[in-house]
Amino acid sequence: MIYIGSDHGGFRLKGVLIEHLKSRDIEYTDCGTFSEKSVDYPDIAKDVCQKVVESGAAGILVCGTGVGMSIAANKVKGIRAVVASDTLSVKMSRRHNDANVLCLGQRVLGNDLAVLLLDEFIDGEFEGERHRRRVELIHGMEDDDTEGARA
To answer: What pTM was computed for the model?
Structure first.
């Protein structure tokens, strides 16, 4: 399951990504927005991310650059969102950081690259082992427990 959402600045790219999910027979829920009418991206990010945390599924967020969605998404406890415009960043975010939300920018990515990044995210897997400890350190920071974090 993928939860997907966008603001008005990412609405058209979200449609492209949904069509690609359909072509791969991947179940998804569209969390909005449903037009190019201006909306507040933090509201969409919060909705998608809460569903990701509750379900253990993945999330996709789209805005103009992906940056705003990423900032908002990473405020939700349990979210490890990455904004990316290259396949290596997506691949490594899945392998090493167990990223659970991919943020993309309609104004900075072409449709073909965005679909490629989506596939890399969906098909990527967390390697675990030494990386699990680091992800746990990140989660400790969410609880204001920075004692275990290293400078």
So the answer is: 0.92
DSSP 8: G
Cα→Cα distances 136→72, 112, 114, Å: 20, 34, 29
Give me the phi and psi of 81, to 5 degrees please. Answer: -95, 145
b/e per residue 26-50 (b: at least 16 CB within 10 A): eebebbbbeeeeebebeebbbbbbb
Spatial separation of the C-alpha atoms in residues 100 and 122, rounded to whole Å: 10
Q: Give tens-digit pLDDT for 105-147.
A: 999 999 999 999 999 999 999 987 888 888 888 888 887 644 5
Cα 111 to Cα 107: distance, rounded to the nearest angstrom: 10
Shortest CA distance to 94 belongs to which of 67, 133, 128? 128
The residue behind tokens 């943020």 is: 103
Residue 96 pLDDT exceeds 70: yes
Are the C-beta atoms of 73 and 45 separated by less than 8 Å? yes
Give the CA angle between residues 24, 27, 32 to the nearest 5°: 110
Catalytic (active-site) positions: 63, 96
